Amino acid sequence: NIVGVVLRCNNYEVIDLGVMVPCDKILKTAREENADMIGLSGLITPSLDEMSHVAKEMQREGFELPLLIGGATTSREHTAVKIAPGYERSTLHVVDASRAVGVVGKLLSESGCGDFVAANTTLQDELREKHYSKQKVKPLLPIAEALKSCKFKMKGKSKLLAKHVQPRGRAGATIHERLHGEHTEILENKK
Question: d(Cα 159, Cα 171) in Å, to the nearest integer?
Fold first, then answer.
């Protein structure tokens, strides 16, 4: 792991447990070695779920160590949305190995740690808010208004449009009922 090499070159002691290490071994080793922080690196997508699991287990077991997240499949947004909520303590995404030394240095600093962690928490709150705001269901337009904004002409398209109306509303309702009687000529076109 390149992060381990970079940190060792800057006089940090790194305990590299290897790849695909079970959560219980990571946490047990952190306790036995009196680690200052835990770092997880994800190179493949399944690692992302395991990172979330480790964060939740750290919370459940009462850890207070910072959790560093990095690797090819990770991102600031994923860390903020999927990993950090599982662990109340500091969970930080490290963009790449070259940044690890600065992050570790700030976390170990008595003077700069609080501000650094607070800024990270604020950033993650903003990222979560931005992420979830994209998930909000937007109200559907009434069919008449939606048809006005269509970029194609209705001639010859009525059959296609009716075929693609997504079922919504109560189970068993016909498309005609879902349209509330509006624009029924679309459905009645025999062509």
Answer: 23
